[in-house]
Amino acid sequence: MAALVVLGSGAAAGPAAPAAFPITITTAAGKVTIQKRPARIVSLSPTATESLFAIGAGPQVVAVDDQSDYPKAAPNTTLSGFTPNVEAIAAYRPDLVVASYDPKGLVSALGRLGIPVVLHGAASNFKGAYQQIRQLGMVTGREAAAARVIAGMKAKIAEIVRTSRSRADGLSVYHEVSPDFYSASTKSFVGKVYAALGLENIADAADSAGTGFPQLSAEYIVAAGPDLIVLADTVCCGQKPSTVASRPGWDRISAVRTGSIVRIHDSIASRWGPRLVSFFRAMSSALARL
């Protein structure tokens, strides 16, 4: 059985490189101009929090949301990225807010207070993930460090794929998002990790709507008989190899019979920042055991 508890990558070392401000970037929400190098950043995105610390911008971060649990040095608060309180955010006197969502017009509300917001939603592919890290480097004056982080990620992932892809030949995977059988197809960012490694994703045939996260059924999963099961619901929902093996009929699944069940921390499997490398490493280790 492959049981993985994967930690993460360290922050980029070295001082911030000089950057010309004001600087304007374009995100999915439109153009954002940052007038000067921010010194009081509030992150309402766990992925952005990880990226900010990885590029060495941690000292510029004064508050992060209640879901930002990595790295440990992040100044965790009760702020919510899902149900944000504009007054509570403004109380930190931020000169930049980074968010993944725009509930109830958060971006406009903060804009009226003169607080710029970089809105980085969930990346749909690796290129998008790298672009977000690059943009965070630009708006924090850490562009050179961001470039180093991206280059390191690309090199490590390329090497993992090079050494692991042949092991995945003809093998299938089931990625479990939750115990009610929501999964991640190749349309999702998570699914692209499996595609890069050459694994056949059993969720693809069930994702006719193209959402990236179809809900499967127990019968469908048993019939598909995946060679590898990845549990991304260990923290949220207490799933582990023994609970999977006890499900009715699942003893007929190849992955259950061979003990090829991988536990990966929910946060690593749901974020698109620097710890993407950790996700690839976990899958590479699992393939080596098959």
Please identify which CATH superfamily of the largest domain we are dealing with: Nitrogenase molybdenum iron protein domain
Order of helical and strand elements: EEEHEHEHEHHEHEHEHHHEHH
Supply Rg: 20 Å
How far apart are the termini? Answer: 9 Å
Kindly report the average pLDDT value: 93
- As laid out across the biggest beta sheet, the strand order is 4-3-5-6
Question: DSSP helix count?
Answer: 12
- Say what the CATH topology of the largest domain is: Rossmann fold
The count of DSSP E runs of length 2 or more, i.e. the number of strands, is 10
Biggest sheet character: 4 strands, parallel
Which CATH first-tier class of the largest domain would you pick? Alpha Beta
What does this protein structure show overall?
This protein is α/β, with parallel strands linked by helices and 290 residues long. It folds into 2 domains: 23-141, Rossmann fold (3-Layer(aba) Sandwich), CATH 3.40.50.1980; 164-289, 3-Layer(aba) Sandwich (Rossmann fold). The protein contains 12 helices and 10 strands. The strands form 3 sheets. Strands 4-3-5-6 form a 4-stranded parallel β-sheet, sandwiched between helices. Strands 8-7-9-10 form a 4-stranded parallel β-sheet. 44% of the residues are buried. The model is unreliable at 1-17 (pLDDT under 50).
